[in-house]
Specification:
The complex is a heterodimer of chains A (228) and B (788). With 228 residues, chain A is α/β, with parallel strands linked by helices. Chain A has 7 helices and 10 strands. Chain B is α+β, with helices and mostly antiparallel strands and 788 residues long. Chain B starts with a helix and ends with a helix. The chains are: A alpha/beta (228), B alpha+beta (788).
Chain lengths: 228, 788
C-alpha cells in the first residue's frame, strides 16, 4: 500500500535548516497495523503528515497504492486523501462549531455522499461507538474519551483504506485509551490498514509491527511478539 | 454543503458577537449611505422625466455672439413663428414670470407669478386637482394646492378672486378657475400661480410678445419625433437675423435645443436659467464618493478584524483540509459567511436608509428622496450588485489568507497571525487616512462657512439693512422717515444694489466688445456700503448741467478689460455713449460666493432713478432698524407686503450649503472614525493578547506605563504617521475639488484646519490605544505570567 524510497523532509527558515525526515525507506502492506515510536522530535508526526499527504516531501519517492503521490498538486492530493485516508489526532481536532453528528458527517460532504446514506452511516457509527445519545452535543460538552471516539468515527466514516493516527491516546486516561485502541484493532481486523504514532509501548503492541525512529531515520523495525 | 456553510457561519457569528456587531453596524451604515447616494443620483437624473412627451420636448437656448455663453432664455416671438415655419415642430409653448403682490382679503404676499401660453398644460403634464384649467381665459388664474391652503385654508378656492399688483397700486383681478397639484421637486418648471401670457406686465404696462427684443424665461418646442431635433435646430438658425437686428446688444450666435430631461443637469452652466436648478453635480458625486469611502472603510474594517481573529479558525481550516476540503471550498465557505454578515448588514442598511434620507431631505431643501424597495427594481438590482461587490471586497482577501495555510503547520501549533501583521497595519492605515480625509473636508467646510460669515467681502455687509421700492416717491418718503430714527447712522439711495440687482451690458473698448456688470448708484452709496475707492476721486456730485459720463470700475475690470493700461482716463462706449473711467474701486463680492468676481462698472445716477433705500446702523441695532423699516413700509405702501432685507442674506444660501456639507461630512467622518476606533481597539487588543506574557514580564522587571504603551503600539506608529499625512493631503485635495465645484469664492483647506483635524484624529486614536494600555497596566501580574 505504501512504499517510500529516500523520503526526506527539510524545514528551512532564514537561518536554520532542520531535517525532519532523512531518506526514509518504508513499506507498509495492506491490512497491516504499524506503530511508529521514537523520542520527541524524531520525525514521527512529520512522517505521518507526509504519508497522510497533508505535507509534501522535500525529496525521495512516495508511492501510495502503486501511484507516486509525493509530487501531486494540492487538489489531487486532496482527492486521494478524502477517498482513501482517515485521520485521528492526539488533540481530537473536532470542529467546535459542529455537533457530534455534524463532525462525523463532515468528510462525507466532501466526497458528496447522498444525504440519506450519510445519515445511515453516521447513525451506525455513533451507535457502534456508543455515543448516539450525544449526537447533538458540541465537542466541548464531551469527555476526552467521547471526543476521541467521535474523532475515530469521523476518520472511518468514509471507509478509508488507511487510518493515520497521531498519538490517539495521548490525551486520554488509560480506560479511554484502551477503548480507543480496541476500536482501532477491531478496524484493523476488519481489513483497514493502520499507521499509528505513539509514545506508549503498550499501545504500540496493539499493532503487528513497530518502527522505531531517531533523528528522522528509521532505525529498527520489529514484529510484535504475538506475530513472531 | 451550503446548509453546512450557513450553519457553521451562524454558530461562528454567535460565538463572536462583538466582531459581528462591529461589522454589521459598520457595513449597515455604509450600505445605508450607498442606498442614499444611489437614490440621490436617481433623483438628480429624474428631473422632468415624468411628462408623457418628455422625449419630444426641448428647450430653446442660445449662444451669445462674442463670448459663446449659453443662455436659457428665448426671444418671445420665436415660438410664435416656429410651428408654422418648421415642419418638425408640433407645438411651441412659453413661460415667463415676475414678482407681484398677491392679495386676498387680509392675506397679502409677494409671489412669483408665471405667465404661459394657452397650450402650456397640453405640452406639460401638471395634473389638475380640482376645477378647470382655462389658460385661454385672460381673467382666469390657476393656483397650486399649497397656495390654495396658504390663501384660502380649507375653503374651495375655485371661483374665488385674487388681486395682483405690479409696481403701481393698479389692481388686476383674476378668478381662480382651477387648482393644480404642486409640481414635484424634480421638476425644472416650478410655479405657484399660472395665468395667460397676455397678463404679463412690464413696469405696469402689458408686454409686447411679438417683439424680437423681449426674452421669455423659457420657450419649449414639442417635436413630432425626437429624431427631428437636428433638422429643427438647423431650421431655427433663420431666426438669428431678425433677433439680432432687433437686439443689437445681445446678438445670438446659434440657437440650440436641449432635451428637457437633461435641463436640470446642466442648469448651473446656463446663464439666465429661470427654471429650477437640479441637484448640484458636486452634491451627487460628493455623496457617491462619501458612500464609497464609507463602504471601503467598513470593508477594510471587516477584512482587518476577520484576519485578526483568524487564529480561532485555523484548526477548523486544517481539519477541513485533512478531510478533503480544497482551498477553493474553504474560500467559498468563508465567503458564504461574509455574505451572511453582509446580508444582515444590508437589512440594517435598508432600515437605516429611510431615516438617513429624511435627515438628508431636511438638510437639502431641494430634495425629496423617498426610499422604497418593492416597487423599485433599479434599487433592488443595485443592492444585489452592491451586496455581491461588498462580499468580495470585504471577504475575498481574508478568505484567501485564512484558507491558504498548510494543515501540517497548523497542527504543529507554530502558526500565529493576526494582531499587528503588515497587512493589518496597512488596512488600519487606510482607515485612518479615509477618516482623516473626511474630517479635513468637514472642518474645511465648517471653516469656509465661518469665513463666509465673517470675512471681508469688499464691502460692509454686517451692518446694512434695506428695502426695495417701487418708485422714487416711495424712496423719498422712506428716506425721510427712517432718518428720524436715532439708531440710523446713514441712508443712501441706489438704482441697483450689491447682492440684489445688477445689469449686464456689452461695451466697446478699443474696438472689442466686452461684457461687464453695470451698477447704477447714488453719490452716497459707495461711502455707505464702504466700497473702497483705490484710484481716482470716486463719485463727484452730479452737476445739474454737465452730462454724467464718468464711471468707476472695479479691479477685475481694470485687470481683465483694460489689462495693462492705466485705468483712470480710459474711455469705452456703451449704448452710443462714451464713458470715461474716473477711478477704480477695490474688488467686492458682487452677489454670493457661488459667483465669481467679474468686471463691474459703477455709474452715478440721480435720485429719480433710485429703487433701493439702504440703511447703515450698528450691528446690534440691525433688528430694531429693520423693524422700524417695516413700520414705515406699512404706512407708505399698505397695499404691498414688506420688501425689506438684511444685507447678510446675500450669503444665506452659500452659508447653508457650506454648513450642510460640513454637517454631512462631520457625520460621515464620525461614522468612519467609530469604525476605525472599533477596528483599532480590536487589533490592539489582539496584539495585547499575543504580548500579554511578555508585557507582564516587562512590568515585573520595572517597565513604566510609557514603555508598555510604546511596546504595545510601536508597530502602528509608522503606519499612523504616513496615514495621517496621506489623509491630510487627500482631504485637502477632496475639499478643494468639492469647493471649486460649488463656489467661486471660498476659503479653501488651510494648513491650520488640516493640522487641527490631524490633531483631533491622533487624540482619538491615542485615547483608543490608551484604554487598552490602561487595561494592561491594571492586569494581575501573577495571572498574566501564567498566560500562554
Amino acid at each position: 500500500m505504501i512504499k517510500t524510497t529516500n523520503l526526506s523532509k527539510v524545514y528551512r527558515t532564514e537561518e536554520v535548516e532542520t531535517t525532519a525526515l532523512n531518506e526514509v525507506d518504508l513499506e507498509i502492506k495492506e491490512g497491516e497495523f504499524v506503530s511508529v515510536m521514537g523520542p520527541s522530535g524524531c520525525g514521527k508526526s512529520t512522517l505521518l503528515n507526509v504519508l497522510g499527504m497533508i505535507d509534501s516531501p522535500s525529496g525521495g519517492d512516495y508511492h501510495f497504492m502503486g501511484e507516486e503521490v509525493g509530487r501531486l498538486s494540492e487538489r489531487k492530493r486532496s482527492n486521494v486523501r478524502k477517498h482513501n485516508l482517515g485521520f485521528v489526532f492526539q488533540s481530537f481536532n473536532l470542529i467546535d462549531e459542529l455537533t457530534v453528528y455534524e463532525n462525523v458527517e463532515l468528510p462525507m460532504l466532501y466526497t458528496k455522499v447522498p444525504a440519506a446514506e450519510r445519515k445511515q452511516r453516521v447513525e451506525e457509527l455513533l451507535e457502534g461507538m456508543n455515543i448516539m445519545h450525544r449526537r447533538n452535543h458540541f465537542p466541548q460538552q464531551l469527555s476526552g474519551g467521547q471526543q476521541q471516539r467521535v474523532a475515530v468515527a469521523r476518520a472511518i466514516v468514509n471507509r478509508p483504506k488507511l487510518i493515520l493516527a497521531d498519538e490517539p491516546t495521548g490525551n486520554l486516561d488509560s480506560a479511554n485509551g484502551d477503548e480507543v485502541m480496541k476500536i482501532l484493532s477491531q478496524l484493523n481486523s476488519e481489513g483497514t490498514t493502520i499507521l499509528m504514532v505513539t509514545h506508549s509501548q503498550y499501545c504500540a503492541e496493539f499493532g503487528n509491527r513497530i518502527i522505531r525512529m531517531l533523528d528522522g531515520q528509521v532505525v529498527t523495525e520489529n514484529l510484535v511478539k504475538q506475530y513472531l | 454543503m451550503l446548509r453546512n456553510y450557513l450553519k457553521i457561519a451562524l454558530r461562528h457569528l454567535r460565538r463572536n458577537g462583538r466582531y459581528m456587531l462591529i461589522n454589521v453596524l459598520g457595513l449597515g451604515l455604509a450600505l445605508a449611505f450607498c442606498i442614499l447616494s444611489f437614490t440621490n443620483y436617481r433623483f438628480a437624473h429624474s428631473y422632468d422625466q415624468w411628462h408623457k412627451d418628455t422625449d419630444r420636448i426641448f428647450r430653446v437656448e442660445f449662444d451669445k455672439a462674442g463670448n459663446h455663453i449659453l443662455h436659457g432664455t428665448c426671444p418671445a416671438t420665436l415660438t410664435e413663428v416656429a410651428p408654422a415655419d418648421i415642419p418638425g415642430v408640433e407645438a411651441a409653448t412659453r413661460i415667463d414670470s415676475r414678482g407681484l403682490t398677491v392679495k386676498q382679503g387680509e392675506n397679502v404676499f409677494n409671489e412669483q407669478v408665471h405667465f404661459v401660453d394657452e397650450n402650456f398644460l397640453d405640452v406639460f403634464d401638471f395634473p389638475l386637482a380640482r376645477g378647470q384649467a382655462r389658460l385661454n381665459d385672460r381673467n382666469a388664474l390657476l393656483i397650486t394646492e399649497s397656495m390654495a391652503v396658504k390663501f384660502f385654508g380649507d375653503q374651495n378656492p375655485v371661483g374665488q378672486q385674487l388681486t395682483l399688483y405690479a409696481d403701481e397700486p393698479t389692481p388686476m383681478v383674476l378668478t381662480i378657475s382651477g387648482v393644480l397639484k404642486d409640481a414635484p421637486k424634480n421638476s425644472s418648471i416650478y410655479f405657484n400661480f399660472l395665468t395667460h401670457l397676455g397678463n404679463q406686465l412690464q413696469a405696469d404696462g402689458p408686454v409686447v410678445y411679438d417683439s424680437w427684443k423681449w426674452f421669455v424665461d423659457a420657450a419649449f418646442l414639442r417635436l413630432r419625433h425626437p429624431s427631428d431635433v437636428k433638422k429643427v435646430e438647423q431650421a431655427l438658425q433663420v431666426y438669428r437675423a431678425p433677433q439680432n437686428q432687433a437686439n443689437l446688444d445681445w446678438p445670438v450666435e446659434r440657437y440650440r435645443l436641449e432635451p428637457i430631461a437633461e435641463m436640470a443637469l446642466h442648469a448651473r452652466d446656463i446663464r439666465w436659467n429661470n427654471l429650477r436648478n437640479g441637484t448640484p453635480p458636486s452634491s451627487v458625486w460628493g455623496n457617491i464618493v462619501v458612500a464609497i469611502m464609507l463602504l471601503l472603510t467598513a470593508c477594510l474594517n471587516f477584512a482587518n478584524t476577520t484576519i485578526a481573529i483568524g487564529n480561532r479558525r485555523l484548526r477548523e481550516m486544517g481539519v477541513r483540509k485533512v478531510m478533503g476540503g480544497t482551498q477553493g471550498q474553504l474560500m467559498r465557505q468563508l465567503l458564504a459567511e461574509t455574505f451572511l454578515i453582509c446580508l444582515i448588514a444590508l437589512a440594517l442598511g435598508m432600515i437605516l436608509a429611510t431615516p438617513t434620507a429624511d435627515w438628508y431631505n431636511a438638510t437639502w431643501k431641494h430634495l425629496d428622496l423617498h426610499i422604497s424597495y418593492l416597487d423599485n427594481p433599479q434599487l433592488l438590482l443595485f443592492l444585489g450588485i452592491t451586496i455581491v461587490g461588498t462580499t468580495l471586497l470585504a471577504g475575498a482577501y481574508p478568505a484567501f489568507y485564512i484558507s491558504a495555510f498548510n494543515p501540517s503547520s497548523i497542527f504543529r501549533g507554530t502558526l500565529r497571525f493576526g494582531g499587528a501583521s503588515l497587512f493589518t497595519r496597512i488596512m488600519m492605515g487606510m482607515q485612518v487616512a479615509i477618516s482623516l480625509m473626511a474630517l479635513v473636508v468637514g472642518f474645511s467646510f465648517a471653516n469656509n462657512a465661518e469665513v463666509q460669515r465673517t470675512a471681508d467681502a469688499g464691502y460692509n455687509r454686517q451692518s446694512l439693512v434695506g428695502v426695495e421700492l417701487p418708485n422714487v416717491d416711495a424712496f423719498r418718503e422712506f428716506r425721510d422717515a427712517i432718518q428720524q430714527n436715532p439708531k440710523v447712522e446713514a441712508v443712501a439711495g441706489t438704482r441697483h444694489h450689491i447682492g440684489f440687482s445688477f445689469r449686464r451690458i456689452n461695451l466697446e473698448y478699443k474696438s472689442a466688445t466686452e461684457e461687464s456688470m453695470w451698477l447704477e448708484a447714488g453719490k452716497d452709496y459707495l461711502p455707505l456700503v464702504e466700497t473702497k475707492v483705490i484710484k481716482g476721486p470716486g463719485f463727484s456730485p452730479i452737476s445739474e448741467t454737465a452730462s454724467n459720463e464718468e464711471v468707476l470700475v472695479n479691479e477685475t475690470f481694470a485687470k481683465e478689460i483694460l489689462q495693462s493700461q492705466e485705468p483712470v482716463g480710459q474711455v469705452f462706449t456703451f449704448d452710443s455713449t462714451r464713458y470715461r473711467i474716473a477711478g477704480v474701486v477695490k474688488d467686492f463680492m458682487i452677489d454670493s460666493p457661488f459667483d465669481p468676481v467679474t468686471p463691474v462698472i459703477m455709474h452715478q445716477v440721480p435720485e429719480e432713478q433710485f429703487r433701493f433705500c439702504i440703511v447703515k446702523t450698528k450691528p446690534e441695532d440691525l433688528h430694531a432698524v429693520y423693524a422700524n423699516l417695516e413700520e414705515i413700509w406699512k404706512k407708505i405702501l399698505p397695499y404691498k407686503p414688506f420688501n425689506g432685507f438684511y444685507q447678510s442674506e446675500v450669503i444665506a444660501d452659500a452659508l447653508e450649503v457650506s454648513e450642510n456639507i460640513a454637517n454631512t461630512m462631520l457625520v460621515f467622518s464620525l461614522a468612519v472614525l467609530l469604525l476605525t476606533i472599533s477596528g483599532l481597539f480590536a487589533i490592539v487588543s489582539l496584539n495585547a493578547l499575543k504580548m500579554f506574557r511578555a508585557l507582564a514580564i516587562r512590568r515585573v522587571l520595572g517597565a513604566k506605563v510609557g514603555h508598555i504603551s510604546f511596546q504595545l503600539n510601536r508597530n502602528f506608529l509608522i503606519v499612523l504617521f504616513f496615514s495621517v499625512i496621506a489623509g491630510g493631503v487627500l482631504g485637502r485635495i477632496f475639499a478643494l475639488a468639492l469647493m471649486n465645484s460649488i463656489y467661486k469664492i471660498h476659503a479653501g483647506a488651510p494648513l491650520l484646519v488640516i493640522s487641527y483635524s490631524a490633531l483631533c484624529m491622533l487624540l482619538v486614536l491615542m485615547l483608543t490605544a490608551g484604554v487598552k494600555v490602561w487595561q494592561i497596566w491594571r492586569m494581575n501580574l501573577a495571572e498574566a505570567l501564567k498566560a500562554e
